[in-house]
User: Which sequence fits this backbone?
């Protein structure tokens, strides 16, 4: 069924622009460059934490590094997170500013092919170019680790080119979300929707795995099972303090610690946010409350 849908979509679309490269400046990164100052690298370290990159890219052989190899189960098969240390042969050594912008914000490989959305680029797409390049600064400043990661285990029909159709459909099905006007809430929205990619697990998806943003945070499903809703209704009984405590320690209002795939989100991401950023995230999720 999924196969037929994807094939039909591709056949119907069939226009060159489906495969055209997004314009992020010249491919050598001119117009953009990866900053190299210690401040930029430090800012990048913070953003990489806020982006939860380590949850997926943590090295199997070298766990402190981002050298990859973890299996990521999905309905479509098993993906292996690649090595994103700057090793030129097995990692991302030599990547330009343009390569980073294409990958993180458009899901495109340096060669023009498509990444699978198991890499949450649909969420990271809302990042500013500046933040993406700070992340690049941090990644390129890390020690290179030589580590070949396994090939994804996917059904034959799931070629990278099918993702051209997926990206288009995802755009068509999901109109732009309303912009938050309060600056603190807007900062929280940026952290939750884009860097923290909370919706990748907490927003429901259709049969093709496309998130339904009209039910943003309405409860999702991952390979481990169902994931709770964290929309306004679901968080109705959470106070600001309780939510901030949860994001710091993973402790829920009922006195239980959260588990499963949420544990690394707390450990590597939300607990490392600055006080102000954590408050902003709380303000965003609880924006409906008085
Ligand atoms: C939910 C898991 C997940 C998270 C979180 C994640 N990634 Fe990835 N990433 C992947 C997967 C899977 C791929 C490979 C996709 C493919 O092969 O199509 C990937 C690919 C990449 C690539 C391309 C590597 C290459 O060799 O082509 C880069 C760069 C990257 N990720 C950077 C990041 C950064 C930076 C973050 C944090 C802001 C991040 N990723 C967060 C799963 C993840
Ligand atoms: C990789 C998937 C994943 C991501 C990303 C993720 N979560 Fe979760 N979240 C889960 C899972 C799974 C649970 C349930 C864990 C359990 O069984 O204890 C959960 C539980 C929660 C709960 C508790 C809900 C309840 O009623 O008990 C909250 C609140 C929450 N997440 C908020 C967030 C926020 C905020 C973000 C973004 C910063 C986020 N999550 C990102 C998977 C995820």
Assistant:
């Amino acid at each position: 069924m999924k196969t037929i849908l994807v094939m039909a979509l591709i056949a119907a679309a069939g226009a060159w622009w489906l495969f055209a490269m997004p314009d992020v400046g010249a491919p050598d990164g001119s117009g953009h460059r990866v900053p190299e100052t210690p401040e930029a690298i430090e800012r990048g370290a913070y953003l990489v934490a806020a982006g939860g990159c380590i949850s997926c890219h943590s090295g199997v052989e070298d766990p402190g590094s981002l050298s990859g190899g973890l299996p990521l189960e999905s309905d479509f098969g098993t993906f292996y997170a690649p090595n994103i240390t700057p090793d030129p042969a097995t990692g991302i050594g030599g990547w330009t500013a343009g390569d980073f912008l294409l990958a993180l914000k458009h899901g495109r490989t340096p060669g023009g092919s498509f990444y699978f959305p198991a890499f949450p680029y649909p969420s990271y797409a809302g990042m500013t170019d500046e933040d993406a390049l700070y992340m690049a600064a941090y990644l390129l400043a890390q020690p290179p680790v030589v580590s070949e990661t396994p090939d994804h285990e996917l059904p034959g029909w799931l070629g990278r080119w099918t993702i051209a159709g997926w990206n288009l459909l995802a755009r068509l099905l999901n109109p732009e979300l309303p912009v938050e006007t309060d600056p603190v809430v807007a900062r929280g929205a940026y952290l939750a929707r884009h860097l923290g990619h909370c919706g990748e697990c907490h927003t429901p998806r259709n049969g093709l795995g496309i998130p339904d943003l009209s039910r943003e945070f309405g409860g999702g499903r991952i390979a481990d099972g169902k994931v709770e809703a964290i929309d306004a209704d679901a968080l109705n009984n959470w106070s600001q303090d309780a939510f901030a405590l949860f994001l710091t320690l993973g402790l829920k209002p009922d006195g239980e610690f959260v588990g499963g795939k949420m544990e690394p989100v707390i450990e590597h991401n939300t607990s490392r946010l600055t006080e102000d950023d954590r408050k902003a995230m709380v303000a965003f999720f609880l924006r409906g409350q008085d």
Observations:
- The chain has a mean pLDDT of 93.
- The radius of gyration is 19 Å.
